[in-house]
Amino acid sequence: MKILVADDSKLVLSLISSLIKSLDEHYQVLTANNGAEAITVAENEKPDLILMDWQMPTLSGLDALKKIKESTVTQHIPVVMLTASENTAEAFRFGATDFIQKPFQKEEFITRIKNILAAIKGPAESNEEKLKTEWLNLEAEKDRLRNLKETLIRQKKELTQILGKTKILHHKFYLEPPLLKENFSEYFVVSCPLLDIPSHMVSAKKRGNQQILIAVGIFHNKGISAFLSAFLCEKVMESLIPDKEKDLSTLYKIVTTNMKEELETEPLFKLIQIDPTNKNITWYGANIPTFLFSGNNLINLDNLSMSSPFHTNDTLYVIQNGFLENTDSRNSHDIFVDFISQHQNIAFEKQKSTLEENIKIWQKELRQQNDILVLGIKL
Predict the structure, then answer these.
(1) In this predicted model, what pLDDT tens digit does every residue of 318-345 receive, in sequence order?
(2) Percent of the chain with pLDDT over 90
(3) CB contact at 8 A, 271 and 285
(4) Inside any domain, residue 166
(5) Do the beta carbons of residue 123 and residue 104 sit within 8 Å?
(6) In this structure, what CATH number is given to the domain that contains residue 261?
(7) Burial of 369 (0-12, 13-18, 19+ CB in 10 A)
(8) Tens digits of per-residue pLDDT, 29-73?
(9) Rounded distance, CA 76 to CA 192, Å?
């Protein structure tokens, strides 16, 4: 029986060759150092089995697999992929018979190869041999399913770790940016996402010597995609901030255009520029409810573009109400505005804890349709 082993590592070639020889010294082991060589050897020697490494120079194992399965000369040869990758579905789609995860234990490798070779030798004439072959085939399938299960468990664990790290990074950079703490003595951010990673972001950048530019974005995608959307938005903002000549409307249009090109959907987006020296606030963007409390007066900053003076200790609030089917400025802020109207004179730290307690109560009474965000800043 001829067995072709393709791997760019001489050490791996030597190890696998010796393991195959330990099964039967009469087995002929052929070797190739890359995918292109594997195709040539397969066409010339027509081995009974090919063990193919996935990652190889010149031509990858996956590309070599495609070529082998496209050729009428070699398409019948079983190909087992040797891979450290978790993405085995693509190899099966292109005709792989099985896969062996790298790195592998010697005993496991020998058992897998025994089962695979038994499965491809073909049924014997006697019923006893047929039953034995079927049993070996079942054992090989059980082996493959066990390895697939282990791979899925590992993938799930890694995905959970990635989600956890992404959630931490999103909160650190896109919910409480350092500039808020540096420039405002009192502020809070309350975020209650439906999934682990929220679909909203808060960004704060210095513009000029005194002005603080705050960007609030609400994306249509969620999870890791929302984190990547926030990252894209932040990078576009960073590239525009040094240009002090651009007004808010121009900044807004550039950011939303870039986001739409990349995401194929335009996020809800609002820019708020605070000038502490001249006590003035300017904004651009609608559909994200924004309010200024001056004394006991509520000023709705819901026009597309405008500016307004403010006084020391006035408070600014930006809201995403996830309890309503659609977030829009006409009807999406009632429950939160009522709460803020009643509590806006108490300390911010107390405001935040009380608001979080109330949201838990509301979640029992109302159906949460989307993520919730409340940003509060004492000016």
Answers:
(1) 999 888 654 444 444 478 888 888 888 8
(2) 29
(3) yes
(4) no
(5) no
(6) 3.60.40.10
(7) middle
(8) 999 999 999 999 999 999 999 999 988 888 988 899 999 999 999
(9) 55
